Amino acid sequence: MPPPPTVSASSAACVDVSQWSTPLLEKNARALQLQMAKYPNAATTADKELLANIERELSKRYTAGSSAATPPAAPKGKVELCERPADLPGNGKVGLMHWWLKTPMKEAGMGPAGGGIPGHKDGPSGYLGVPTTINDHKGEKPTSCKPLDKVDVDCVNRELENGKPTGRWAPPFNDCHTVVVDVVKKCAVDGVDPFAHEQNKQADAGVP
After folding, report:
1. Calpha distance 86→108 (Å, rounded)
2. Exposed, middle or buried, 11 (CB in 10 Å: 0-12/13-18/19+)?
3. How far apart, in whole angstroms, are the C-alpha atoms of residue 59 and residue 40?
4. What is the pLDDT of residues 72-123, one digit of tens each?
């Protein structure tokens, strides 16, 4: 099946998303995120700009608490660290955990370049040195999600840009754990390390 048509640059430039209702913004954001995750090579600059404009408008409404905005599904400003065991051969003994971040607007983490959620027996699995990107994780079932205090949710949303390159998978130097830690530290409020008093760090390498 061919990919769905993308938004043209001219039409994207004319779209004033501030005039859209919040439910319409959320619907279009989800549609664009799914389209880019399924057809990453078909995404145009206009598609990405439109999604960025929608996300900025939603973030503005959530932050301002506008009466016209629909409240986010999770508490405002909430950032969570989600994890589950990597479904890989022999992992019952090794215990590798896949990490990603969840906010009221996004759920994403490291994955193979081109899309997909790693660490599934029948899904995309990485090998040492494989290129990686930030991939959409919506619908993924975590073993647990832990709230992280003093983290700027808008900053995290910006960092979780779908398709953003995250380097080559090289555990423990660059993997799903280090990507999560880097984003959280970059978005920490007042320089507070959200991991300082949490038992979230693990010695196991994160699957890509």
Report:
1. 16
2. exposed
3. 24
4. 443 445 899 999 987 655 544 446 889 999 999 999 999 999 888 886 655 5
- My answer on whether 183 and 106 are in the same domain is yes
Q: Which residues contact 64 (CB under 8 A, 6 or more apart)?
A: none
Residues 60 and 84 in one domain: no
Q: Per-residue b/e over 53-72, b at no fewer than 16 CB within 10 Å? A: bbbebbbebbeeeeeebeeb
Distance CA 102, CA 82 (A): 7
User: Which residues share a beta bridge with 111?
Assistant: 133
CB 106 within 8 A of CB 73: no
Q: Cα torsion at 58, 62, 65, 68 (round to 10°)?
A: 40
Note down the domain range covering 57. Answer: 9-64
- Among 106, 103, 126, residue whose Cα is nearest residue 116: 126
Same domain, 57 and 96: no
Residue 114 counted as domain residue: yes
Distance, in Å, from the CA atom of 105 to the CA atom of 79, rounded to the nearest integer, reads 10
Question: Please, are residues 132 and 169 in contact by the beta-carbon 8 Å criterion?
Answer: yes
The dihedral sign for the CA sequence 73, 79, 85, 87: positive
Residue 17 Cα distances to 12, 29, 101, 128, angstroms: 10, 11, 26, 42
Output the pTM of the full model. 0.57
Taking 60 as the threshold, does the pLDDT of residue 40 lie above it? Answer: yes
CA distance 185 to 15: 35
